[in-house]
Design goal:
By secondary structure, this protein is α+β, with helices and mostly antiparallel strands. Helix content is 39%, strand content 21%. The structure holds serine.
Length: 579
Amino acid sequence: MNLRDRYINFFVERGHKQIPSAPLVPENDPSVLFNTAGMQPLIPYLMGQPHPYGTRLCNYQKCIRTTDLEEVGDTYHHTFFEQLGNWSLGDYFKKETITWSFEFLTKELNIPIERLAVTVFAGNDIIPKDDESIEIWKSLGIKEERIYPTENDNFWKVGETGPCGPDSEIFYFRGNEEIPLKFDPEDERWVEIWNDVFMSYNLKEDSSLEELPKKNIDTGMGVERVVASLEGYDDNYMSSIWKNPRKKLEEISSEVYDSNKKSFRIILDHIRTAVFILADPAGVKPSNTDQGYILRRLIRRAIRHAKKLSIDTNSSWMEELALIFIDDFKNYYKELEDNKEVVLEGLKAERIKFNRTLEKGLRKFEKISDKDIDGITAFHLFDTYGFPLELTIELAKEKGLNVDVEGYNQKFREHQELSRSSSQGKFKGGLAGDSEIETKYHTATHLLNAALKEVVDKNIHQRGSNITVERMRFDFNCDHKLTDEEKMNVEDLVNKWIDEGLDVRVDEMSKQEALASGAECMFIEKYPDIVTVYSIGDISKELCGGPHVKNTKEIGEFKIIKEEASSAGVRRIKAILEF
Ligand code: SER
């Protein structure tokens, strides 16, 4: 029987109710991007609210931890992982939970006691040493040398505030060598597999601890590590959990996996995580912020490592791998099957997008990588060519160069600020995102609007627009199909203005003042009383939320790709910029 089922059965037999795995993107907690632990969706109940299922709960929960994204690539860290958990909400406490943990491992899973060690809380100024847990472990037969009191890692908290408490971690010895008598936290052959947290405090904003109304238990066991351990592997990726996707990747790459092949692990881990994020009900798509940014980084890092394995990254290799994960996990996570098409489409779209920008970016990187990479350049690679920071770091490392990470972070924060303030603006002027490329397109729509008035008809106005990093779409009122000559003249005029290097100016003024000055505006009623007006030289003036380039010479070359009917009396131009 599968580990998940054995675990759930074991705790259900001991009076627990199984609760469903919550979505990866927390429903009511904007402070974190993803659930990082099984207890996260249970925070209100750990804080004292009664749970509809009672006081003994258990489940398997989807989790994502991205703090150690850089570490992923070793044999036992994963971005996505499943945590098996049992909880007591003011019901049982240390004796029961430690005893059950011990019984599950040694009796249900038949792990020899010689392979186990535990850590316990050593005590500090506020909370005393956890002698009670030490005694319980001893009574179960764990030898003193295998009970290790420590303060550092043995106080578990979910964040800077919230439920927390001392814990006792259980370690499994993974080596095939003789097992050392004494537990050594520095010896990596001891792998943490389960954590019993005695959650009886609330960490407050001023860093003080207050006792919770009830003493709770929160435990978490890592499925990947336990399965690998039970199957006798010291590399998680060799276990049955990864067997099918590993085989598929071997087939795709025509290489056989061994533990020296870090790229294999990165690809397997990241694609699996991407599949679960895309299938989550929150509907996350790759983007440059929040969950979408993590998703984008994962997919793009996987693609880069696929290149290292000489996989044809233009093929549908990612989707093929995704199908294996979906098949393997769908019985436990139904959303994978339900959202299969969304997952496959999401991967495909990002793959195509990234391949295109990656080629451009790699050429750019070659040109600039004769010296260390400063923060502005690293951000430019991210914003314009879609390079996640860590991709730049990896490429730089290969050339023995450093990257100014602090400088990059600074630029990134500025960018986030910009995108926040622009999305708070009432009207976004058709702007789909805020990357540098989209900003260029945005200014180009203003030039196009002005050029159409000049070349075709001064009564033309914008009826809509849509921008992506690939192209712009601009709808305008017009009673006829543009002639080839009109199209050519419009294109030439836009390019002439770009070449002239016209400054773009932004002014704040009242709505009346803006209209009186002849500023162009699409839906006047949508604007607040004070508006921003963008002017380009003296050829264009529009009410708009921005952002825009500072000078038209930043825009690149403008090309009309298509002119067609959009709806009655409305024409549509599709255009691209070439840089
Ligand atoms: N919340 C604790 C952890 O994640 C126990 O589950 O380690």
